[in-house]
Amino acid sequence: MIHLSRIATRFTQLQQAQRKALIPYLVAGDPRQEVTVPAMHAMVAAGADIIELGVPFSDPMAEGPVIQLAHERALEHGVSLRDVIAMVAQFRQRDSDTPVVLMGYANPVEVMGPGVFAELASDAGVDALLTVDLPPEEGCEARQILASHGIDTILLLAPTTTEARVEYLCKHASGYLYYVSLKGVTGASHLDVNSVRDKLALIRQYTDLPVTVGFGIRDADSARAIAPLCDGVVVGSALVDSVSRQASAGVTEIQAMLDPMTGLLSAIRSAIDTV
Q1: What class is the 6-11+20-272 domain?
Q2: Which pLDDT tens digit goes with each residue over 201-255?
Q3: Where are the domains of the chain?
Q4: Chain-centre distance of CA 169, in angstroms?
Q5: Measured CA angle at 80 (ends 92, 242), to 5 deg
Q6: Of the candidates 200, 198, 133, 128, which has an alpha carbon nearest to the alpha carbon of residue 170?
């Protein structure tokens, strides 16, 4: 009997229900460490299917200003990769079904050691790793180690990815593929739906994996425009910004801090359920 991962199970369920995946992103430990796990549960309650949890890093090169600042705040609180893994373990005490992807950069995993990371992450209930700055050619050994612990490797594709490169990436990814919808950093706004449509058509020639789209999706309208083209939408900067604005305004009660974020997420859920 083949054991399906949480990610494969979730996408199978969504396909059967003819629904698109809603994948919110937050930076672990921002704006305070004790906010992260309640935020994850709140996201699920608002309609999230998979959660991407950002691992704080000092040089988050793919991020725009909003998420860069979130990384800085989390690091100021001393949040480490081990802390992030512990947050996932705490989340799993109440939620054994929602897939959790750690999204970040190679350095923290390299420092910990891929083997140690894979063992700790697997034990905590992490389902996949997305490493922004590790070329797949250099990550072969790490992918094998992760796979041996049941952890998928999510790979990124971009508007500039050549067809030969698309084929290579599709061959080495697992879980799902993450298409970066624009030439820029997280939070950018110049979303070109026609360009996304053309690129996804190319990607689907080389894979049966679900294809998600992120970068540039900030509200119900942009999510509604992209959702018909893909298997899931990723929303990050708008959610991170919502929570940080509440914290900056002096809101300290966690639920009140999260309410605008979950309101936005619920609106996006409703929007993509109409397509």
Answers
A1: alpha beta
A2: 999 999 999 999 998 899 999 999 999 999 999 999 999 999 999 999 999 999 9
A3: 6-11+20-272
A4: 18
A5: 70
A6: 200
